[in-house]
Design brief:
The protein is of the alpha+beta class and 130 residues long. Helices cover 28% and strands 23% of the residues. It has four helices and five strands; from the N terminus they run H-E-E-H-E-H-E-E-H. The chain binds tetrahydrodeoxyuridine (THU).
Length: 130
Amino acid sequence: MRSRNDLVDLARQAALNAYAPYSRFRVGAAVLGSDGITYTGANVENAAYPSSSCAEANAIAAAVSAGVRKIDAVAVACIDAPTPEEAYPCVRCRQIMSEFSVDEIHVTAGPGSLVKSHTLDELLPHRFTL
Ligand code: THU
């Protein structure tokens, strides 16, 4: 099992591949599947703004597309944000995390930034499930 710092480093690396010409806000995510394998994603924007996708959603889609159904941890790195407070996952991504039973979320920002860790219950209490 990878450490928190390994997952955060992978998220930082993934952010370098972000396609963010509109917002100039690069985000990378790395997820640890219950298979022990890590998957990554970056935000991919579109001229038709709502057709853009978030880094976390893309990383989770990569894991699920490989057969993963349980994700133990997610790291997100908003490398153009000054502090983790500006780097928390959007609510749509939190709901996507809920679908795959994410336990822990690690959030970081630009170089030298702290890493803040939370449970999904902290970030999305009373969430919708079927
Ligand atoms: N973004 C993410 O990738 N993840 C989030 O949780 C919030 C926002 C992206 C979407 C868009 O490409 C850019 O950050 C600015 O909103």
